[in-house]
Write a structure and sequence with these properties.
The complex is a heterodimer of chains A (about 500) and B (about 475). With about 500 residues, chain A is an alpha/beta fold. Chain A has one domain: Alpha-Beta Complex (Amidase signature (AS) enzymes), CATH 3.90.1300. Chain A is built from 15 helices and 11 strands. By secondary structure, chain B is an alpha+beta fold. Chain B has 15 helices and 16 strands. In chain B, strand 13 and strand 14 form a beta hairpin. The N and C termini of chain B lie far apart (about 65 Å). Classes of the chains: A alpha/beta (about 500), B alpha+beta (about 475). Chains A and B meet through helix 9 of A and loops of B.
């Protein structure tokens, strides 16, 4: 029987324990393999890979024994099932990728394996990462490990990286990869009480990550602590000549940025975010966050991001437009699902009708519409102009401040089934995350407190492009001040 | 101008030429581009549009497109954008073609046509952009299934678009030949139409002279100069027939039926695709360094028009001859090798006469010529120094073609050396006049025409080796006595 006490360790603690030989990578991995089985009811994993995990752990142990350990040697992590993994089923939570096993490994996961990390399996998500609840998966919805006290209704973990968030929160992965297109790392991190970091666009390669919206897709880490996020990002980041949008910049030592000293840094508080239908309890936690940072020596400064109210409609034009084109390759011709028909067009129609769920179909339709002759100028082109203005807002703000503090999401987690018949209500979840997505800026969500009904609420720190170091430095202080210690009602190892 | 039943019509023609970039790798992937490879043997995961695969621009292809632009005296646009052209087809794996729509890498340029009447016509180039080729669908391999070969998918093409400045099938043919010549000079496209390296879409409309443009039809995917000219001829007549009956031309995309020599409708304007172009978010705008463009400009080879002008001024050739010699880079090179240090007109004469004749007979290009430039030069030298008469030289040349031997060794082996000994020739003249005393008498009586007869007899008597100039001089002296 594996040792469940190992599951409580953060990535940094596990790394140090392995280095001290307090336990082996195989012991750690065995504990996590059991944890993955134990949290099966959450449906967080689509494909667990326990044998591969043990093999990788064995290799890590051999390196640890020889004293030439890699930075993440023996650390068991989960991979969002949007990353292509060589020889391992990769689904994007869609039926259209039925039985698709890529003959290649995504750049980011390859970097992680080259750093010694161990793959526990592939985590569930909204189909093609389209959603804020992880309920649109062909493989069924993900459940949050959290419950409202005294209320047994299952809650959503947020989305789209809900499987990764649930796995990390429920102690069934030390850390996980996610992807963030409009908030898909940060919002589930907020809902599940963990840390989620969306790096700058171009910091982590998109090569081998199933595309949703190319100009918005950001691979990034999901972890239990800010330090863990810094360690993971270091392993995931770096220039990739196979991705033309990858930035040819060196990767800083992010962990070294966690000095605890934020004295004199100016923290922007965007006044427009208050107007976006924010509840009093979220506003209170936001104010608390500002007070904490001020207490640590930073200067809160009110700033204006006047284009904020246009961010959501802009996002919901650009992202579907790119998606409608990116998803054209799923045509039944070369891989994945094919439903035969009497003609080529019928084969296309039957395959795509059977392969895509309603949310994906909705976005393909919207995207096709906004790119159509006669509508392109009014929708897509206008949205691109607004996107530039949003980026300009941030650029202007960052002339006055070093980072921006904002809530991650307008509320805590909702119950599975809530919002599901109203796509617009669902889209509103992204209101605080999409502006920085559109601008490609680094942003991290850190657990800051509990809502009135006992659910985690995160705050996000948004920084200048390629200044993840400042973002992490401030997030680390926020985390220390918040002292968020609550654990979900369901964590692996608890009942053993 | 085409004469219809109700008066003259003028054709308005614009061409879109798809020229395959001479590159060993595809435009956005590292896969190979060899012609005639096994189906689907040159396909990368990018070309097959597997999930998560991303395009990366091939710098060399950009370089060749820029060179092409410079060769067409066109504006090089330092920032251009790749767009996605969206449509579904099994030989288009991603469901979109990466192309350049609103911001091509090359803007306005021009190309000069040398018309048969000696005038020149300037044809506007609208733009040149880079785009990917699609794969090939094979419908004849199985009774009920279609096969797809992705070897071509992703190969770099330059689309070279002309203004609607062409006015006849003949001009369209001249334009294509001239464009192909420039591309070959630049080394940016091999211009091989049989292998599909150069394909052409023709936009054709008809109008009364001086009137605005009429409705056009586009004829797709023509792969020879001859087909382009035939298709335009047919399409022009078809449109005139409709217009003269009072009908209207429907804007259509048409195909040329090679076997029947006609065009037929493929799809109407209503059925036209909405390609939903938008900038490809996987690619950053293409930004060129002005210094790099300037270096490419400086390294540009001498192009046909400049070479022609130089051949006229430097070698004293006629514009027509110079035009023929510069059409192919290899011919121009061959000519200059022969002409250097020799009579350029003789060099041009031999290349365009006997050599072209031989090459045509064999159906080969000058690069495969059985006679090298050095050998042809040696032959001309043998004429110049009096060793060979022009007549003898023709025989020697035929022998050179047949045996690939050097002219000097042919002259030696066959004893073809010209007779320049005056005594020997005078003796031959005496013998001929003696043997034909009757004709000699007639000549003296005024039948001048017999002069040629005597020359012929003397050449025959000397087995063709007598120096013709000496024969003429000595014969005239003898006859005048």
């Amino acid at each position: 029987m594996s040792d469940p006490s190992l599951l409580a360790l953060t990535l940094a603690e596990a790394r140090d324990g392995l280095a001290r030989k307090s336990f082996s990578a195989r012991e750690l991995t065995a504990a996590y393999n059991d944890a993955v089985s134990e949290i099966e009811p959450l449906n967080a994993y689509i494909t667990p890979t326990p044998e591969r995990a043990l093999e990788m752990a064995g290799a890590a142990d051999r390196r640890l024994a020889k004293g030439n350990a890699l930075p993440l040697d023996g650390i068991p992590i989960a991979v969002k099932d949007l990353y292509c993994t060589k020889g391992v089923l990769t689904t994007a939570a869609s039926h259209i990728l039925d039985r698709f096993c890529p003959p290649y490994e995504s750049t980011v996961t390859e970097k992680l394996w080259h750093s010694g990390a161990v793959m526990l399996g592939k985590t569930n998500l909204d189909e093609f990462a389209m959603g804020s609840s992880s309920t649109t998966s062909f493989y069924g919805p993900v459940e949050s490990p959290w419950r409202r006290p005294g209320d047994n209704r299952p809650l959503v973990p947020g989305g789209s990286s809900g499987g990764s968030a649930a796995a990390v929160a429920a102690r069934a992965a030390v850390a996980a990869t996610g992807t963030d297109t409009g908030g898909s790392i940060r919002q589930p991190a907020s809902y599940c009480g963990i840390v989620g970091l969306k790096p700058t666009y171009g910091r982590c390669s998109r090569w081998g990550v199933v595309a949703f919206a190319s100009s918005l897709d950001h691979p990034g880490p999901m972890t239990r602590t800010v330090r863990d996020a810094a360690i993971m990002l270091h392993a995931m980041a770096g220039h990739d000549p196979r991705d033309s949008t990858s930035a040819p910049l060196p990767v800083p030592d992010f962990e070294a940025a966690l000095t605890g000293d934020i004295r004199g840094l100016r923290v922007g508080i965007p006044k427009e975010y208050r107007a976006e239908g924010m509840s009093a309890e979220i506003e209170a936690i936001w104010q608390q966050g500002a007070n904490w940072l001020q207490g640590a020596g930073a200067d809160p400064v009110e700033i204006s991001l006047p284009m904020t109210k246009y961010a959501l409609p802009t996002y919901y034009i650009i992202a579907p437009a790119e998606a409608s084109s990116n998803l054209a390759r799923y045509d039944g011709v070369r891989f994945g699902l094919r439903v035969e028909g009497d003609s080529l067009d019928e084969m296309y129609e039957l395959t795509r009708a059977a392969g895509f769920g309603p949310e994906v179909r909705r976005r393909i339709l919207v995207g096709t519409y906004v790119l159509s002759a006669g509508y392109y100028d009014d929708y897509y082109l206008k949205a691109q102009r607004v996107r530039s203005l949003i980026a300009r807002d941030f650029a202007a703000a960052f002339e006055r401040v070093d980072c921006i503090l904002a809530p991650t999401a307008p509320s805590a987690a909702f119950a599975i089934g809530e919002n599901s018949d109203d796509p617009i209500a669902m889209y509103l979840n992204d209101v605080f995350t999409v502006p920085s997505s559109l601008a490609g800026l680094p942003a991290i969500s850190v657990p800051a407190g509990l809502s009135r009904d006992g659910l985690p609420v995160g705050l996000q720190i948004i920084g200048r492009a390629f200044d993840e170091e400042t973002v992490l430095r401030i997030a680390y202080v926020l985390e220390s001040a918040a002292q968020f210690r609550q654990v979900p009602s369901f964590v692996a190892g608890d009942r053993r | 101008m085409i004469e219809g039943a109700t008066g003259p019509w003028e054709a308005v023609i614009g061409l879109e030429v798809h020229a395959q970039v001479v590159s060993k790798a595809k435009l956005f992937s590292g896969a190979a581009t060899d012609f005639g490879a096994e189906p689907n043997s040159q396909v990368s995961l990018v070309d097959a549009a597997f999930p998560g695969m991303l395009p990366v621009i091939n710098r060399f292809c950009v370089e060749l497109a820029v060179k092409t632009g410079l060769g067409l005296e066109a504006e090089i646009r330092l920032e251009s954008v790749f767009d996605r052209k969206n449509y579904f087809y099994p030989d288009l794996p991603p469901g979109y073609q990466i192309s350049q729509y609103q911001q091509p890498v090359v803007g306005r340029g021009k190309l000069t046509l040398d018309m048969s009447d000696g005038t020149v016509r300037e044809i506007g180039i609208t733009r040149v952009h880079l785009e990917q080729d699609a794969g090939k669908s094979l419908h004849d391999q199985h009774p009920s299934l279609s096969y797809v070969d992705l070897n071509r998918a992703g190969i770099a093409l330059m689309e070279i678009v002309s203004e609607p400045d062409l006015r006849s099938a003949e001009e369209a043919g001249l334009y294509l030949r001239k464009l192909r010549s420039i591309l070959r000079y630049l080394g940016t496209c091999d211009g091989n139409m049989e292998e599909g390296s150069l394909r052409c879409d023709c936009n054709v409309s008809m109008r009364r002279p001086g009137e605005p443009y009429g409705t056009r039809c586009e004829i797709k995917n023509l792969n020879s100069v001859r087909y382009v000219m035939q298709a335009i001829e047919y399409e022009g007549r078809r449109q005139i027939e409709i217009l003269e009956k009072g009908g209207a031309i429907e804007q259509q995309t048409r195909l040329f039926d090679v076997a029947r020599g006609i065009t037929r409708s493929m799809r109407s304007k209503e059925e036209a695709h909405d390609y939903r172009y938008f900038p490809d978010p996987d690619l950053l705008p293409l930004v060129l360094d002005p210094g790099w463009v300037a270096r490419l400009r400086a390294e540009l080879p001498e192009l046909p028009d400049a070479k022609k002008a130089r051949f006229v001024s430097q070698y004293g050739l006629s514009p027509d001859d110079a035009g023929v010699l510069v059409a192919e880079k290899e011919t121009a090179l061959f000519f200059e090798r022969v002409a250097t240090g020799r009579d350029p007109k003789a060099a041009a004469h031999w290349i365009m006469g006997d050599l072209f004749g031989a090459l045509n007979r064999f159906g080969i290009g000058i690069e495969a010529s059985p006679v090298s430039a050095e050998q042809l030069g040696a032959l001309i030298d043998l004429i110049a120094d009096g060793t060979l008469s022009s007549r003898l030289a023709k025989d020697v040349f035929a022998e050179m073609v047949a045996t690939r031997a050097h002219p000097a060794s042919i002259v030696e082996a066959k004893g073809l050396r010209q007779v320049t000994d005056q005594g020997e020739i005078a003796a031959a003249i005496d013998a001929v006049l003696a043997a034909n005393s009757d004709k000699f008498a007639e000549y003296r009586a005024g039948r001048d025409k017999l002069y040629g007869f005597f020359v012929g007899q003397i050449m025959r008597a000397t087995a063709g080796k007598a120096n013709p100039a000496l024969v003429n001089r000595l014969l005239k002296e003898k006859l005048a006595q």
